Amino acid sequence: MAINATPLRIPVTVLGGYLGAGKTTLINQLLSQAGNADPVRIAVLVNDFGTINLDAAFISSQSDSVIELSNGCICCSLADGFAATLDQIHQRALADPATAPQQLLIETSGVALPGAVAQYAHLPGFELASIIVMADGEQLEDQLADRYIGDTIRTQLGTADLVVVTKTDLISTSNLETTTSLIRSLSPAPIISAPPDSDLQLLVFGIGAFPPSSPPSARTSDQQATLAIASNRVRLVQPVDQKALEHWLEAAPPSVARVKGVVEGEKALLRVDRVGPRVRIQVWPNQVAAGILGTIEILSIKAHPGANQTLSQWLGDSPPKL
Fold first, then answer.
1. CATH of the domain spanning 1-206, picked from 3.20.20.60, 3.20.20.370, 3.40.50.300, 1.25.40.20
2. Which single residue of 25, 125, 180, 319 has CA 20 to 30 Å from 17?
């Protein structure tokens, strides 16, 4: 649990998973969405520019190590190593805060351990937001049984704050249940299927909100029902006690995959962010629209054992007002 009253640092999301799990596909989707109605400047650290499918029309400038996009995002090569690349981004942010990245996404190699890579998020100017590990729903059972790569994948999954299962459209419901059970035996993190585009930034970065016209009780993903995502909102219109808020977030049931929002505390606005079991509360220095302040967005997995009852109980225990 982190409560940070210092100037905001760039949140770092580490994206892990074995070869072919879909990391690059997710990055391409995020970059294509970044310039939409709710734009966000993303810096993506990748091992190979060639794997990122960037439309030439969106590239505003390019060097050997950095590609700048017209939507404010940048892609940086890791050829010089993590520390040097992060320092370069940090120096850019100090030189021009108005164009500094608002989110940093590190794509690890297929055999890298995300937990080890996440240690770089503690360098000056950054903070770890979450570790997301992608799992190939079609291949995971065989991969875990492989004597050469099984231990690597177990370790990857074991460090995840959130596990995203891909290729669920290629397997049966029973196989998906087997895959989900295998992951649960290795990781306490929430498990979801690859989300539709409209939910992607919210799940990965905690950015954006569900359309007001979508009733929370009716909104689910288009994936198989076993890993369907439901959304809920909690409105906290009065100032909240920060300690009570902390305890409430930490008590969220295992079905809760993501929580985010900005609420009024006793002395300042507080940004709330939870990914799986990882919770952060930060003093939020920016102004927030009246319709957004006090609204906490919650994404949960509908089919998680006991999800409906435990989620309802938790939502009913929302933190008390001051």
1. 3.40.50.300
2. 125
CA distances from 50 to 24, 29, 32, 47, 110 (A): 11, 16, 16, 9, 16
In the sheet that holds 269-275, the strands lie side by side as 2-4, 278-283, 269-275, 256-264, 295-301, 229-235
What distances in angstroms separate CA 66 from CA 93, 103, 246, one per listed residue?
A: 14, 16, 39
User: Reduced to 3 states, what is the DSSP secondary structure of residue 279?
Assistant: strand
Asked if residues 50 and 75 have their Cβ atoms less than 8 Å apart, the reply is no
Average model confidence (pLDDT) for the chain? Answer: 78
The pLDDT of residue 165 is above 60? yes
- Residues 281-309: b if buried by 16+ CB within 10 A, e if exposed: bbbbeeebeeeebbbbbbbbbbbbeebee
- Rounded to two decimals, the pTM is 0.75
- One fold for 1-206 and 228-322: no
The domain spans of the chain are 1-206, 228-322
Mean pLDDT of 16-26: 89
Tokens of 318: 């929302």
Give the sheet arrangement for strand 66-69, strand by strand: 59-62, 66-69, 74-77, 42-46, 103-107, 10-17, 126-136, 162-166, 191-193
Half-sphere exposure of 194 (CA within 13 A, CB side): 19
The Cα-based distances of 158 to 113, 151, 190, 220 in angstroms read 10, 10, 12, 27
The CATH number corresponding to 228-322 among 2.60.40, 3.30.1220, 3.30.70, 1.10.150 equals 3.30.1220
Beta carbons of 232 and 216 less than 8 angstroms apart: yes
**pLDDT of 221 over the 50 cut:** no
Which is it for strands 126-136 and 10-17: parallel, antiparallel or unpaired? parallel
Q: CA–CA distance from 164 to each of 51, 175, 179 (Å)?
A: 20, 16, 12
Return the structure tokens found at 78. Answer: 């890791």
